Every structure is written in C-alpha cells, then in structure tokens.
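Side project, low priority. Logging it here so it doesn't get lost.
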Amino acid sequence: MKITSIKEELQKSGNIIFPNKGTSMLPLLREGKDAMIIKKKKKGKRFHKGDTVLFERANGDLVLHRISDVIKGGYLIIGDNCIEKEHVKERDVLGVMTGVIRDGKKTVKVTDPLYKLYVKAWTGIFPFRKIYMKARGKIADMRK
C-alpha cells in the first residue's frame, strides 16, 4: 500500500490495518509476519509515554514508533529496536496503534495485560538496551 493510500484511508475510515515493514519495532513487530491496527488521531488528542504512534517525517516517510517522553508541542519517539530518540511535533502524528495481528491470526490489543507488561519492561530497560545494542554492533563489526 502506498504512503498516500495509508494516509488517505486512515483519514477516510478512521482505522487502518497494514503489514509491518522494517525492523525498527522488533521484537514486537516482525516484517512479513505481523500487521498493525492504527486508529486515526482525534483532533486535540495527546498521547502518553508508551503509546505507539504513526507519524510522518519531514521527508514524507510514515513511521510507527513508541513515545518515550511527552514534551511541549510533541513527543520524543523511538523504535523498540533503535537507540536514538527523535523529536516529533504533535501535528505530525497521524494515529495510534490499537493492536497487532500476529501471523495473520491472533490479535493482540494494546489493552492486553501481557502487551502492557512488554511496554513497561521494554521502555524500562532502555538505558541497558542502548548499551547492549551498541556492544552487539561492535561485536558484529569485529567479525567482519
């Protein structure tokens, strides 16, 4: 589905389901295996730390990442498999993930207790994840 189609469909219907592309949200979202359920952002709605939002970058790319901090006029956002946060303005947020369809079968809602536990654990270990991922990269470089 084209980016303009995703935006248009979300604006028109209020909800959209589309497959994950990329690895920035591993281990939660697996490319080619999972799909995301996105709900259109309501006017004036502010999101919270831990919410996973769909936003548009200045270059037009649509990205789904997690809010790590709520700040004035926007958010600091990071992918679950990333180590650098990025500033996203409120106006660039298009919607919020309400669930994940695993392997085309099971739907996991963001209200599910296990999902909430994952978010709390994954966001809580962020400083250690950053150290781990940097070390993993250096080890991979040494093997080359």
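Brief comment: The radius of gyration is 15 Å.
Revisit when time allows.
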